[in-house]
Amino acid sequence: MEPDEKKASGEAAAAAGEKSEGESSVYATDHEEEDEETKLELGPQCSLKDQLEKDKDDESLRRWKEQLLGSVDMENVGEILEPDVKILSLSIISAGRDDIVLPIPEDGNPKGLWFTLKEGSQYRLKFSFQVSNNIVSGFRYTNTVWKTGMKVDSSKEMLGTFSPQPEPYAHEMPEETTPSGMFARGQYSARSKFLDDDNKCYLEINYTFDIRKDWV
């Protein structure tokens, strides 16, 4: 082999090696945080009481705050800076079937298989939550799914901004369809999170589920 050919062959082998290493590193990081985002600097946080006092002479802002706060008792608002969000219930709904009510463990890690879905079926995730102490801004839901160690799905849903109130809020996610076929069936691992725009996580759930030929 001529010197130039040897050089070209060596460069090609090095490039192939770099590509292989790059591909491996992609798969190696699949189980790392998929939904890490740069934390936004939104300025100092104010208590709900302070927020009500701000711009109280601006009629348009006052009306907007009243609309946002809704049923909040203005006479008994506190001075706690941090909002608190508690996820009260989680369930999977599918037409023609009873809802699958998912127990929420305190540590966020269900033991064993959490639920089973039928291949090719349509379903929605439904949940309720309660907000207390302060307004929660940019409340969102993220979900990442793996099969045999490879990421196969990742989704995010912005839920909105919510004021504290005694009554729980309820939300239904957009309808999804489970994959079907021999290669789609089997066990999956997943991680779901409920966060706000400060990246504060109110609930993280790490779980496994199955996709099978039929409902269990």
From TrEMBL:
Protein localization: Cytoplasm
Q: Tell me a GO cellular component.
A: membrane
Q: Which Gene3D superfamilies match?
A: Coagulation Factor XIII, subunit A, domain 1 (2.70.50.30)
| Recorded coiled-coil stretches | none
Q: Which SUPFAM superfamilies match?
A: E set domains
Give the GO biological process terms.
Rho protein signal transduction
For this UniProt record, the keywords arranged alphabetically read as follows: Cytoplasm
Keyword check for Cytoplasm, yes or no: yes
Alphabetized GO MF terms: Rho GDP-dissociation inhibitor activity
* Region named Disordered: 1-56
Family listed = Belongs to the Rho GDI family.
PANTHER family xref list: RHO GDP-DISSOCIATION INHIBITOR, RHO GDP-DISSOCIATION INHIBITOR 1
Kindly provide the name given to this protein in its UniProt entry.
Answer: Rho GDP-dissociation inhibitor 1
